[in-house]
Amino acid sequence: MTAPQFLIADLQRHQRQLTALHxxxxxxxxxxxxxxxxxxxxxxxSSQLPLHDYLPAALAAVCSQSPPQGIFYLLQVDGQxxxxxxxxxxxxxxxxxxxxxxRPAYRGLGLADALMETLLADARIFGYPRLCxxxxxxxxxxxRLYRRYxxxxxxxxxxxxxxxxxxxxxxxxxxxxxxxxxxxxxKESK
Length: 190
Prior knowledge:
acyltransferase, 31% helix, 190 residues, transferase, 24% strand, Aminopeptidase, globular, GNAT family N-acetyltransferase, seven-stranded mixed beta sheet
């Protein structure tokens, strides 16, 4: 395996790849929500709003900001898209990690750590003092990863895309950031 490449996603240029990854990710999330019987919630990608209709708004919400407000990456390994993840600004004081996702074949290779380290560095470079994120209750491996990087549980935050009726069954996390020296810069591939 060669070193991963972090491609800064562009909604126009990478539409096919972004759509495929979001379909995989959101399809998995919604299928898991249906399996968790005690949640008694329905997904926005239900019979009233199919996933293909929900995706354009979801993509725009998480992939449309550019530095220094936000950034979204496609993670490429050996010429193949292995995953994605991004950062979106919610205010001048708070950014949110979004769509940290690796395709199953690429898990356990240290790529989640590389993605987390890149996004944490970007958030510092952009000047955000705090980061937040959300994950469903069934995403235990992701929550362990986030805790390893200093995230702690918190209340739902302003700007979350998690519907209010789901929030009691969701995990919200945050952490503060230490400023980075002024001589750091972003690169297309890290």
